[in-house]
C-alpha cells in the first residue's frame, strides 16, 4: 500500500558491534604498506603522523555521520554535494572518490603481489606488476559473476588481519628492546631526505597516513542498524579511531624500531612489503611468512571491496549522466553493473602499471583529502535543526583536509588538480548534451 512505511533494518548493533564494523572497513592496505612509505618521508616521526592523521579522521568521521543522519542515501559525498552544495561540487566529490579509491585498489594489488613474492624470496619489479595485474583481473571476473562480499568473509579477514598485526607487535618487541633506541633516534630525522624540513616531512607523512584511516564512512552510514544512533555512532567513530591509531602506532614503533626507517622505506617502494621485511629481523621462526599471509588476505579483501564499491559509484554517476550512460546499466540478470565493473578494473590496472606504491598511494591521499574537504563543506550547510555537532568540527575537518592535501609531492597535487579540471570540463559537456536532448 502507498502510505506504508518501508521495512527497516533491525537495530541490533551497539557500540562494540559498530566498532568491529569500523575496524573491518579501515584496517587493510594502510597498515601493511603506507607506514613504510610514510616512514621513508618522516623517519621515526611517522609515529606522530599516525596520531595526527587519526585526529583529522575523527573530525571527518563525525561530519560524515551527521550528513548520513540528514540525507540517508547511498553514494556518500557525491550525493551530499548535490543535496547540500551544488552539482559541480557533487560531481567533483564523486570524481575524486573514483580517483582515490582506484589508486588505493592499485596499491592493494601491488601490495598483495609484493608480499606474495617476498614470501617466496623473489624480488622482481616486472613480476610484481604482472602479478598485481593478474589479481585485478581475477577479482574483476569474480565480481562480474555476481559474487558479492560476504559479512562472514569480512569478519574472517578482519580476524586474520588483527591476529597477524598482534603477532607482529609481540614478536617484534625483543628486537625493539635491542635496536629501538638506535633506530628511533633522532626522532625527527627524515629518512633518505636529510635536507627536508622535519615539520614538512611530518605533514607530508600525515597526508599519506590519513588515507589509512578511511573506511570510517561505513560507521557513519549505520544509522538504521544501531541502537541510539545519535549516541552510538559518534562514540563508535571516536573509539574505532583511537583503537586503530594505537594499533598503527604500535606497528610503526615496532617496524621502524626493528630495521630503521631507511630499510622500511626501501622495502615499501621496491618490494611493496615493508612489514614482511621488518619481520625478517624477528627471532621467532616463520615470522615473515605469517606477516605475508595476513597481508595477502587483507589486501585481497580490500581489492574485492574497492572494486565493488567503485563500480557502484560509477553506476550511480552513469545513471545521473555524470558519466556515460552505458555505465548506468546492469547485466541481463540485473545483478551486476557489467560495464561499470569493467571500466573500474581497467582503471585500476592502468594505475598498477605505474608499479610504485608511493605514487599510487600519494594519488589516493590527495584525492581522498579533496573528497573529504567537500564532505566537511557539505556538513557546514546542514540546517541548524539537523546538526548533531558544532560547526567548529566541520571547519576543523575542512581546513585540515585542504591543508594536508598540498603537502604531497608537487607533481601529485598538480596532476590531481588537472584531473579535477578535466572532470569538470567533461561534466559541463555532459550536462550541455543532456539539456539539449
Keywords, separated by commas or semicolons:
Amino acid/polyamine transporter I, Amino acid permease, globular, transmembrane helix, membrane, AA-permease/SLC12A_dom, mainly alpha, transmembrane
Number of strands: 0
CATH second-level architecture: Up-down Bundle
State the fourth-level CATH superfamily: Amino acid/polyamine transporter I
CATH third-level topology: Amino acid/polyamine transporter I
pLDDT average, as an integer? 85
* Helix/strand order: HHHHHHHHHHHHHHHHH
Percent helix, as a range, is over 70%
**Basic shape:** globular
Number of helices: 17
- Backbone CA Rg: 21 Å
Largest sheet: none
Structural class: mainly alpha
Instruction: Give the class-level CATH name.
Output: Mainly Alpha
How far apart the termini lie comes to: 35 Å
Summed up, the domain count is: 1
- As a percent range, the share of strand residues is under 5%
* Unreliable runs: 5-9
Architecture overview:
- With 437 residues, the chain is mainly α.
- The chain has a single domain, classed as Up-down Bundle (Amino acid/polyamine transporter I), CATH 1.20.1740.10.
- It contains 17 helices and no strands.
- The chain has helices at residues 15-26, 29-42, 46-70, 77-84, 87-119, 125-144, 151-183, 198-210, 217-220, 229-259, 261-271, 274-279, 287-320, 338-352, 357-380, 391-405, 410-435.
- α2 packs antiparallel against α8 (198-210), α3 packs across α15 (357-380) and α5 crosses α17 (410-435).
- It is globular and about 70 Å long.
Summarize the structure.
The protein is mainly alpha-helical. The chain has 17 helices and no strands.
